Every structure is written in structure tokens, then in C-alpha cells.
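Checked the freezer inventory, then went back to the computational side. Two predictions to log before the end of the day. The first one is the construct we discussed on Monday; recording sequence and C-alpha cells without edits.
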Amino acid sequence: MWTPHAVYHALGETVAARTLSYRKLFAGHLDDHILTQIRDASNKGLALGNDRFKEEIESLSGRRVIALKRGPKPKNEKL
């Protein structure tokens, strides 16, 4: 059995009005750069946001949510 949620019913008086209101919720366009950032963060399991937000998520979750630089660590050279 499926019952529409009350919030969905609040979008309009008729099915047509609700459908139009619902579609308007997703009518905005995301910039390709933002969409790429969302996909990368999601695929890699990383946080998306500013540095403060990422640090807070890291401390709360106890796991790294910021990508590290790729490749080997640089060797320290003595002069």
C-alpha cells in the first residue's frame, strides 16, 4: 500500500497543482562545476563544504573526510 505524504498533499489542491509544484522544486540548474564536486565527494566518501565544516565532521566521525594528496610522500633532503 502507498499513501502520499502530507507534505506532498500540501503542495496543491489538485493532482495537477501538486505535480507542477513538485516539478518546480527541481527546476533549478546546477553548475557543472558544483555537480562534479558533489559527485566526487559522494563517490569518494568525502565531506563537501568549507574547511571548518570538514574539520568538524572529521572530529565528530573520527575518520578522515578530506582527500589526501596523491603519490608518495616527499623525502626530506639534508643540505
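The second is the one RB wanted added to the comparison set:
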Amino acid sequence: MIQKGRYKHFKGNEYEIIGFAKHSETLEEMVIYKQLYGDNSLWVRPASMWEEEVEFDGKLVKRFVFLQE
């Protein structure tokens, strides 16, 4: 289960999940988050992508790693 809080992206930047929503057409679960750098803009991403692993430097790593609430 994805929880609200601060996360680190595999490329190094940090983000904070501020809420959850459903896509209006597909009902797909979405994560609403803000970047914790620059203009602190808001973003949305499918929950399935939030939890997936990606290949980075030849290794499978989590896209986002939970840091704290």
C-alpha cells in the first residue's frame, strides 16, 4: 500500500505524496504528489507506476523509496 509522505526518486530528487485520486474515465488509481525542489509543482502518476521497479545502471531498483511521513 502506498502511503502519504516523502519519497526519493531513483534519480535522486525528493517528492511528497499529498493525496490520491481516480482517473475519471478509467477509474485507475493515481498518486498526487509535489516535487520538493524548484517551483514545488504538483504532478500526478498512476499508482502502478509509483510502485514499479525500473532498470538503472544495469540494476532493478524501486522508482520511489519511502523516506518518512
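For RB: The domain at 5-68 is CATH 2.30.30.320 (SH3 type barrels.). The first strand starts at residue 5 and ends at 9. Let me know if you want it refolded.
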